[in-house]
Amino acid sequence: MIIQVKPATLIKRYKRFLADIKLPNGEETTIHCANTGAMKGCAEPADTVWYSTSDNLKRKYPFSWEINQTQHEHFICVNTLRANQLVEEALNKGLIDELAGFKSLQREVKYGNENSRIDFLTTYQDLPDTYIEVKSVTLLEEGKGYFPDAVTTRGQKHLRELIDMISQGNRAVLLFAVLHSGINDISAAIHVDPVYAKLLKEAQLAGVEIIAYKADFYLNTHEMNISLGNKVPFIER
After folding, report:
1. What is the pLDDT of residue 35?
2. Which of 29, 57, 193, 236 has the smallest set of CB atoms within 10 Å of its CB?
3. Sequence ranges of the chain with CATH classification 2.40.50.580
4. Which class does domain 2-77 fall in?
5. So what's the pLDDT on residue 32?
6. pLDDT at residue 162 above 90?
Protein backbone atom coordinates (compact mmCIF):
# COMPACT_ATOMS: atom_id res chain seq x y z
CA MET A 1 0.00 0.00 0.00
CA ILE A 2 1.41 3.35 -1.04
CA ILE A 3 0.19 6.51 0.69
CA GLN A 4 1.12 10.00 -0.39
CA VAL A 5 2.17 11.84 2.76
CA LYS A 6 3.71 15.09 3.98
CA PRO A 7 5.53 15.77 7.27
CA ALA A 8 4.62 18.02 10.16
CA THR A 9 5.35 18.27 13.87
CA LEU A 10 2.77 17.17 16.43
CA ILE A 11 1.59 19.81 18.89
CA LYS A 12 -1.14 17.79 20.61
CA ARG A 13 -3.92 15.30 20.02
CA TYR A 14 -7.32 15.99 21.60
CA LYS A 15 -11.02 15.06 21.44
CA ARG A 16 -9.86 11.67 20.08
CA PHE A 17 -10.41 12.63 16.44
CA LEU A 18 -8.35 15.83 16.21
CA ALA A 19 -4.72 16.84 16.39
CA ASP A 20 -2.91 20.14 16.03
CA ILE A 21 0.28 20.15 13.99
CA LYS A 22 2.96 22.61 12.88
CA LEU A 23 3.83 22.57 9.19
CA PRO A 24 7.43 23.01 7.99
CA ASN A 25 6.68 26.66 7.13
CA GLY A 26 5.66 27.32 10.75
CA GLU A 27 1.92 27.41 10.09
CA GLU A 28 -0.29 25.59 12.59
CA THR A 29 -3.36 23.63 11.51
CA THR A 30 -5.75 20.90 12.67
CA ILE A 31 -5.95 17.42 11.14
CA HIS A 32 -8.32 14.48 11.47
CA CYS A 33 -7.25 11.44 13.49
CA ALA A 34 -9.06 8.21 12.54
CA ASN A 35 -8.21 6.43 15.78
CA THR A 36 -10.55 6.02 18.74
CA GLY A 37 -7.94 4.27 20.91
CA ALA A 38 -5.77 5.61 23.69
CA MET A 39 -2.76 5.85 21.31
CA LYS A 40 -0.45 5.45 24.30
CA GLY A 41 3.10 6.21 23.23
CA CYS A 42 1.92 7.02 19.69
CA ALA A 43 1.23 10.73 19.99
CA GLU A 44 3.89 12.55 21.95
CA PRO A 45 4.36 16.29 21.36
CA ALA A 46 7.25 16.94 18.92
CA ASP A 47 6.78 13.58 17.17
CA THR A 48 6.76 13.74 13.37
CA VAL A 49 3.30 13.42 11.84
CA TRP A 50 2.96 12.08 8.30
CA TYR A 51 -0.41 13.12 6.92
CA SER A 52 -2.37 12.55 3.71
CA THR A 53 -4.57 15.10 1.95
CA SER A 54 -8.14 14.53 0.77
CA ASP A 55 -9.52 16.20 -2.34
CA ASN A 56 -13.05 16.05 -0.90
CA LEU A 57 -14.05 19.71 -0.67
CA LYS A 58 -16.82 18.90 1.82
CA ARG A 59 -14.39 17.78 4.50
CA LYS A 60 -13.85 20.24 7.33
CA TYR A 61 -10.34 18.87 7.90
CA PRO A 62 -8.71 17.82 4.60
CA PHE A 63 -5.58 16.42 6.26
CA SER A 64 -5.60 12.90 7.80
CA TRP A 65 -2.99 11.61 10.23
CA GLU A 66 -1.58 8.43 8.72
CA ILE A 67 1.78 7.67 10.34
CA ASN A 68 3.46 8.80 13.53
CA GLN A 69 7.25 8.82 13.60
CA THR A 70 8.40 8.82 17.21
CA GLN A 71 11.49 10.49 18.57
CA HIS A 72 12.94 6.95 18.85
CA GLU A 73 12.51 6.68 15.03
CA HIS A 74 9.68 4.15 15.20
CA PHE A 75 6.98 4.30 12.55
CA ILE A 76 3.40 3.70 13.72
CA CYS A 77 0.34 3.55 11.49
CA VAL A 78 -2.19 5.41 13.63
CA ASN A 79 -4.97 5.40 11.00
CA THR A 80 -6.83 2.29 12.16
CA LEU A 81 -8.77 2.18 8.88
CA ARG A 82 -5.56 0.99 7.22
CA ALA A 83 -5.37 -2.26 9.22
CA ASN A 84 -8.11 -4.05 7.27
CA GLN A 85 -6.83 -2.63 3.99
CA LEU A 86 -3.36 -4.00 4.70
CA VAL A 87 -4.75 -7.38 5.75
CA GLU A 88 -6.91 -7.63 2.62
CA GLU A 89 -3.93 -6.78 0.44
CA ALA A 90 -1.81 -9.43 2.20
CA LEU A 91 -4.58 -12.04 1.91
CA ASN A 92 -4.99 -11.44 -1.81
CA LYS A 93 -1.22 -11.71 -2.32
CA GLY A 94 -1.05 -14.95 -0.34
CA LEU A 95 1.31 -13.43 2.23
CA ILE A 96 -0.50 -14.88 5.26
CA ASP A 97 0.36 -18.58 5.13
CA GLU A 98 -2.35 -19.72 7.54
CA LEU A 99 -5.07 -18.18 5.36
CA ALA A 100 -3.77 -18.83 1.85
CA GLY A 101 -5.65 -20.71 -0.88
CA PHE A 102 -9.17 -19.43 -0.28
CA LYS A 103 -11.86 -19.58 -2.97
CA SER A 104 -13.67 -16.42 -1.96
CA LEU A 105 -13.25 -13.48 0.40
CA GLN A 106 -16.02 -11.27 1.77
CA ARG A 107 -15.74 -8.15 3.90
CA GLU A 108 -17.91 -6.94 6.78
CA VAL A 109 -20.28 -9.92 6.88
CA LYS A 110 -23.00 -9.94 9.53
CA TYR A 111 -22.71 -12.87 11.93
CA GLY A 112 -23.09 -14.04 15.50
CA ASN A 113 -25.60 -13.56 18.27
CA GLU A 114 -24.44 -10.09 19.35
CA ASN A 115 -25.11 -8.14 16.16
CA SER A 116 -21.52 -8.24 14.92
CA ARG A 117 -19.76 -7.97 11.58
CA ILE A 118 -16.73 -10.10 10.86
CA ASP A 119 -13.87 -8.29 9.14
CA PHE A 120 -13.31 -11.09 6.60
CA LEU A 121 -15.04 -14.34 5.76
CA THR A 122 -13.10 -16.74 3.55
CA THR A 123 -14.24 -20.02 2.01
CA TYR A 124 -12.04 -22.92 0.94
CA GLN A 125 -12.37 -26.09 -1.11
CA ASP A 126 -11.79 -28.55 1.73
CA LEU A 127 -11.84 -26.41 4.90
CA PRO A 128 -14.65 -24.91 7.00
CA ASP A 129 -15.66 -21.31 6.44
CA THR A 130 -13.12 -19.09 8.17
CA TYR A 131 -14.12 -16.04 10.22
CA ILE A 132 -11.25 -13.55 10.53
CA GLU A 133 -11.28 -10.76 13.09
CA VAL A 134 -8.55 -8.10 12.67
CA LYS A 135 -7.12 -6.03 15.50
CA SER A 136 -4.44 -3.36 15.04
CA VAL A 137 -1.60 -3.34 17.57
CA THR A 138 0.32 -0.17 18.45
CA LEU A 139 1.00 -0.42 22.19
CA LEU A 140 4.71 -0.84 22.98
CA GLU A 141 5.83 -1.06 26.61
CA GLU A 142 9.35 -1.94 27.74
CA GLY A 143 10.12 -3.43 24.33
CA LYS A 144 7.01 -5.63 24.25
CA GLY A 145 3.84 -5.34 22.18
CA TYR A 146 0.39 -5.55 23.74
CA PHE A 147 -3.29 -5.51 22.83
CA PRO A 148 -5.53 -3.75 23.74
CA ASP A 149 -4.30 -0.29 24.73
CA ALA A 150 -7.56 0.45 26.60
CA VAL A 151 -10.51 -1.53 27.94
CA THR A 152 -12.45 -2.82 24.93
CA THR A 153 -15.95 -4.16 25.45
CA ARG A 154 -16.24 -4.38 21.66
CA GLY A 155 -13.16 -6.58 21.52
CA GLN A 156 -14.57 -8.76 24.28
CA LYS A 157 -17.75 -9.21 22.25
CA HIS A 158 -15.76 -10.22 19.18
CA LEU A 159 -13.97 -12.94 21.15
CA ARG A 160 -17.29 -14.36 22.33
CA GLU A 161 -18.53 -14.37 18.73
CA LEU A 162 -15.42 -16.20 17.51
CA ILE A 163 -15.81 -18.83 20.23
CA ASP A 164 -19.41 -19.30 19.10
CA MET A 165 -18.29 -19.78 15.48
CA ILE A 166 -15.99 -22.59 16.61
CA SER A 167 -18.88 -24.27 18.43
CA GLN A 168 -20.85 -24.21 15.16
CA GLY A 169 -18.12 -26.09 13.31
CA ASN A 170 -16.51 -23.12 11.59
CA ARG A 171 -12.92 -21.93 11.69
CA ALA A 172 -12.16 -18.69 13.60
CA VAL A 173 -9.00 -16.61 13.43
CA LEU A 174 -7.94 -13.57 15.43
CA LEU A 175 -5.36 -11.71 13.34
CA PHE A 176 -3.26 -9.07 15.05
CA ALA A 177 -1.98 -6.51 12.54
CA VAL A 178 1.12 -5.08 14.22
CA LEU A 179 1.39 -1.50 12.95
CA HIS A 180 4.35 -0.36 15.08
CA SER A 181 7.87 -0.86 13.73
CA GLY A 182 9.26 -1.32 17.25
CA ILE A 183 7.03 -4.29 18.16
CA ASN A 184 8.44 -7.77 17.50
CA ASP A 185 6.01 -9.88 19.52
CA ILE A 186 2.53 -9.49 21.00
CA SER A 187 0.74 -10.49 24.18
CA ALA A 188 -2.62 -9.86 25.77
CA ALA A 189 -2.51 -6.68 27.87
CA ILE A 190 -3.82 -8.22 31.08
CA HIS A 191 -2.73 -5.07 32.95
CA VAL A 192 -4.96 -2.98 30.68
CA ASP A 193 -8.04 -5.19 30.19
CA PRO A 194 -8.01 -8.36 32.32
CA VAL A 195 -11.45 -9.38 31.03
CA TYR A 196 -10.21 -9.33 27.44
CA ALA A 197 -7.09 -11.30 28.42
CA LYS A 198 -9.23 -13.95 30.14
CA LEU A 199 -11.56 -14.23 27.15
CA LEU A 200 -8.59 -14.49 24.81
CA LYS A 201 -7.28 -17.48 26.75
CA GLU A 202 -10.74 -19.07 26.63
CA ALA A 203 -10.85 -18.46 22.89
CA GLN A 204 -7.51 -20.22 22.43
CA LEU A 205 -8.71 -23.21 24.42
CA ALA A 206 -11.90 -23.30 22.34
CA GLY A 207 -9.87 -23.50 19.12
CA VAL A 208 -9.69 -19.89 17.93
CA GLU A 209 -6.40 -19.44 16.07
CA ILE A 210 -4.31 -16.43 17.04
CA ILE A 211 -1.78 -15.12 14.54
CA ALA A 212 0.14 -11.86 14.25
CA TYR A 213 1.74 -10.19 11.24
CA LYS A 214 3.85 -7.05 11.31
CA ALA A 215 3.87 -4.13 8.91
CA ASP A 216 7.01 -2.98 7.12
CA PHE A 217 7.39 0.76 6.46
CA TYR A 218 9.37 2.24 3.56
CA LEU A 219 9.51 6.02 3.26
CA ASN A 220 10.62 7.54 -0.03
CA THR A 221 10.40 11.33 0.13
CA HIS A 222 6.60 11.80 0.27
CA GLU A 223 5.57 8.20 -0.40
CA MET A 224 5.00 5.78 2.47
CA ASN A 225 4.88 2.15 1.34
CA ILE A 226 3.39 -0.18 3.97
CA SER A 227 3.08 -3.94 3.61
CA LEU A 228 2.02 -6.71 5.96
CA GLY A 229 3.94 -9.94 5.56
CA ASN A 230 6.25 -10.76 8.46
CA LYS A 231 4.88 -13.12 11.09
CA VAL A 232 5.63 -12.31 14.73
CA PRO A 233 4.96 -14.53 17.75
CA PHE A 234 2.01 -14.31 20.10
CA ILE A 235 3.40 -14.85 23.61
CA GLU A 236 1.55 -15.55 26.83
CA ARG A 237 2.95 -13.43 29.65
Report:
1. 87
2. 57
3. 2-77
4. mainly beta
5. 95
6. yes
